[in-house]
Write a structure and sequence with these properties.
6-stranded mixed beta sheet, alpha/beta, 38% helix, inorganic pyrophosphatase (n-terminal core), 336 residues, globular
Length: 336
């Protein structure tokens, strides 16, 4: 294991560094990864970000994006970088199965592994851990790591700030979730002072949809939304046929699960989508309802109390039926 002094000593010399994050990276995954990347290159480290899969186009504008390697399209190059690395930063995930086939490459690497994350129940694969389940985003923890662990706030420049702002903004649902504390707002103020242009970042992430994506959203809300008033729950169910009809790309389903929560008295929302090899679930909840418990117990997943995900190899209808059968056990929490 590394202590903070040893890690600082390592980072005082040029290192071969790989930064990676979970498959199908979201705004926090890419924001924290590229934020850390833009910090490390200022110190002369040979640094690359490797993602296990592709990610949404609306995140491709961030500084440093051109240097990202997607493992599924550049497998040999990525594998060599992992094998040669002296440090591997694992951001926004806490178990190696979250990076698919890359997980075993990272496990086998002789590099020190540094985890920066805010998810429950981390796997014990890391040599250094900067972890807090109360953080609203991994990007918040990357900021804290740079400023308070490495004592290098002066290197939080415009590029670093822009990426970290994006991560915090997206994972906090634009600063609306309960864990958006006053401390988070103070971090955001620091990032704006460092050069992050808040309104521009919002435009690039949220106001850059394709026509197909907007029509797909309309289809989901008009034809796929089911309300279960007896459980204050809403379900959006999307078939593979729907995905093909609207030519859904990576990122096009992002955030759709949040729309039903805008309905009065809806406390739990589920987005259940049929993919090529399995059915994926995204759950969002209000208040103290444990969305992560449902995903962990019944759908091989997990996450945060108000935002969680899972999956199943059963059919789409079987998954929907199973989800509905679970709800009576949570009725007291849902109708309070």
């Amino acid at each position: 294991m590394l202590d903070t002094a040893s890690l600082n000593a390592l980072l005082a010399q040029p290192q071969k560094i790989v930064i990676t994050t979970h498959h199908k990276p979201d705004g926090d995954a890419m924001g924290s990864s590229l934020g850390l990347y833009n910090y490390l290159i200022q110190q002369g480290h040979h640094t690359r970000v490797i993602t296990p899969t592709d990610y949404p186009d609306f995140l491709s504008w961030m500084p440093g994006n051109g240097e990202v390697i997607i493992y599924t399209t550049h497998t040999q190059e990525a594998a060599k970088l992992i094998a040669d690395a002296t440090l591997i930063f694992c951001l926004d995930f806490n178990a190696l199965n979250r990076i698919n086939e890359m997980g075993e490459l990272v496990r086998a690497s002789g590099a020190y592994k540094i985890m920066i994350d805010h998810h429950l129940e981390p796997e014990d694969f890391d040599d250094y851990r900067h972890w807090d389940i109360n953080a609203c985003a991994s990007a918040q923890l990357v900021y804290d790591f740079i400023v308070n662990v490495l004592n290098n706030k002066k290197l939080v420049n415009k590029d670093v700030a822009t990426c970290l702002y994006t991560g915090i903004m997206t994972d906090s649902a634009s600063f609306r979730l309960p864990n958006t504390t006053s401390a988070v707002h103070r971090v955001i103020a620091d990032l704006i002072d460092a050069g992050a242009i808040n309104w521009r970042i919002h435009e690039l992430v949220y106001n850059s949809a394709t026509e197909n994506r907007l029509r797909f959203l309309g289809h989901c809300l008009t034809n796929c939304l089911e309300i279960l008033p007896e459980f204050n729950t809403a379900i959006i169910t999307v078939s593979k046929h729907d995905m093909e009809k609207y030519a859904v790309n990576t990122g096009d389903t992002e955030g759709i699960v949040n729309y039903p929560l805008s309905i009065s008295n809806i406390h739990l929302a589920a987005f259940i989508v049929e993919r090529n090899d399995k059915v994926k679930l995204s759950l969002r909840s209000k208040g103290d309802f444990p969305a992560n418990e449902i995903c962990k117990l019944y759908f091989s997943g997990g996450g945060h109390r108000n935002a969680a995900g899972g999956e199943s190899t059963a059919s789409l209808q079987e998954v929907v039926n199973k989800f509905k059968l679970i709800l009576p056990g949570y009725k007291k929490l849902l109708i309070q």
